[in-house]
Amino acid sequence: MPVHNIHMYTLAFVAYLSFVRVSHSENPLNSPEVKLINKLLLNYEKRARPIINVSAAIPVTYNIDIVGIQEVDPKNQRMSIFAWQPMQWKDEFLAWNSEEHGGIKRIILPTASIWIPDFVLQNTADKFYNEESLKYFNAEVSHTGNVIFTPGGKLSTSCPLNMKYFPFDYQACKLLVSVWAPSCAEVKMEALSKKVATDRYEESAEWTLVSTSIKNVQILYLGVKYCSIEINLNLQRKPLYFVLIFVIPCILLSFVSIVSFTIPAEGGERISMSMTVLLSFSFFLIVLNDLLPKNSDEAPILAIYIVVVMAFMGMSLICTILVVRLHYSSKPVSPLIKRVITGYLAFCVKVKISPEKATGIDWKDVGKVLDRIFIIIFSICVLIVTIVVFFLILTHRK
């Protein structure tokens, strides 16, 4: 065989070996990270607690990082927030020597492949077991076996809301996060901090997050202790919106109805005005009913205020009808009524009746005196009720 042919075959063989070597080295299945993951998960049993000493408990630290308050629903007695829930524990079966694996010190593993604490929101108002946390979030594993898992999402919890001081109310809601199946002797979940993390918190348009607290709780069930974490959120409503569209119109309407006594009885608009105001209060009561829960334990002070003012407006309407009826009465005024009207009552309400007019007083004059009396009485009543109600509400707010 010619020498030049041997030389060509040799070059071709060397090129082939180089190609095979490069292809083999570039194969992703041979990367140090893939080899490490395959090694760690080989014969890994995610149903077993990842601890060598089976008689010891696995310590799990828990914290909650609230992003925002999504909804506070008084009618259904529930609160919804968006939050991250960082957890950390040590998996003794996922530790490795970083020097033996290309200096890799951390990897990301899907939670479907490894053991994670069986945690639930115990007082949830939605799904009891949040499968989305397992489906969409991975875990970060370090070479020491330390695992960090940070699921996030919407948390809806049942929350008994006290609407007594609406719209100047405070609310206290609680979230109870528990390790569902293992007892404290197997998995010991503890809070990392005494307060909720608010670094990412975005202020709500309706609520102010006043304070938070976190504490460890152990629930005894059938003689076994289960570890839970109680998260308390104290909220204060921002009342400006409801004050502008609800409270101020109610107060104004309560005094507008009293002005009807200044309208001349001949105009015929007094009764219709009183009826309109009464219907307006009925509308406000319907709106309030749509906002608030059907809870008979403690009625909202604002609802009581509207009902009391409506009662005054009902009596005001009756008095208006009485004055209009007297205005058109053709019967003579009795001497007793003349003496009462021209004497003590006229003096008290500052209505001047001349001596010449006193002998010929008619029902129109009686109506004028009664109008003045009703204005004073209902103004005082509405003013006292308004002051007392809002004093109670604002004192509670302080």
Automatic annotation (TrEMBL):
Domain Neurotransmitter-gated ion-channel transmembrane: 247-340
Secretion signal, residue range per the UniProt entry: 1-25
Keyword field: Ion channel, Ion transport, Membrane, Signal, Transmembrane, Transmembrane helix, Transport
Pfam families given in the database record: Neur_chan_LBD, Neur_chan_memb
Gene3D superfamilies, A to Z: Neurotransmitter-gated ion-channel ligand-binding domain (2.70.170.10), Neurotransmitter-gated ion-channel transmembrane domain (1.20.58.390)
Ribosomal protein among keywords: no
Presence of the UniProt keyword Transmembrane helix in the record: yes
InterPro entries (alphabetical): Neur_chan_lig-bd (IPR006202), Neur_chan_lig-bd_sf (IPR036734), Neur_channel (IPR006201), Neuro-gated_channel_TM_sf (IPR036719), Neuro_actylchol_rec (IPR038050), Neurotrans-gated_channel_TM (IPR006029), Neurotransmitter_ion_chnl_CS (IPR018000)
Domain Neurotransmitter-gated ion-channel ligand-binding stretches: 35-239
A GO molecular function held by the record: extracellular ligand-gated monoatomic ion channel activity
Segments passing through the bilayer: 240-259, 271-289, 301-324, 373-394
Record-level GO cellular component terms: membrane
Entry's localization field: Membrane
Mode of membrane association: Multi-pass membrane protein
PANTHER family associated with the record: NEUROTRANSMITTER GATED ION CHANNEL (PTHR18945)
Family affiliation: Belongs to the ligand-gated ion channel (TC 1.A.9) family.
Protein name according to UniProt: DgyrCDS1833
